[in-house]
Amino acid sequence: MESVYDVMVRQLTEYFGVPQEQISPDATFEEMEVDSLAQVELATMLEDTLGVALPQGRQDFTLGEAAAFLERAAGGEAARSALMGAAK
Fold first, then answer.
1. What is the distance between the alpha carbons of residues 43 and 1, in angstroms, rounded to a whole number?
2. Are the C-beta atoms of 45 and 30 separated by less than 8 Å?
3. What is the pLDDT of residues 38-79, one digit of tens each?
């Protein structure tokens, strides 16, 4: 089962071409060179997967903070269920 963080990393590398070495829990989307359009696309993908969205206008989230927010917002068990379905 993938964690929310792992889902985000996979989406960043596979769909947005972010090099693995630029990705860390402390990296901001700006530092990973993820522009605002890609952030909106990523947020939509995550909302489709988890059923919750990142707050609008929060450009300063680190990847770790965003993953923790989504984990809490999805309510733990609901997030795990959604992630198990996404990993198949």
1. 20
2. no
3. 988 998 998 998 888 887 766 678 999 999 999 888 775 554
Question: What is the distance of C-alpha 16 from the center of its chain?
Answer: 12
The backbone region for 17, taken as left when phi is positive above 0, alpha when psi lies in -120 to 50, beta otherwise, is: left
Q: Nearest CA to 4 among 87, 18, 88, 34?
A: 87
Structural domain span for residue 24: 4-86
| pTM > 0.85: yes or no | no
Distance CA 67, CA 73 (A): 10
Instruction: Look up residue 37 and give its amino acid.
Output: L
Could you give the number of structural domains in the chain? 1
SS3 28: strand
CATH of the domain at 24: 1.10.1200.10
Separation in Å, CA 9 to CA 64, 69: 10, 15
Whether residue 29 contacts residue 59, with contact meaning beta carbons closer than 8 Å, is answered with yes
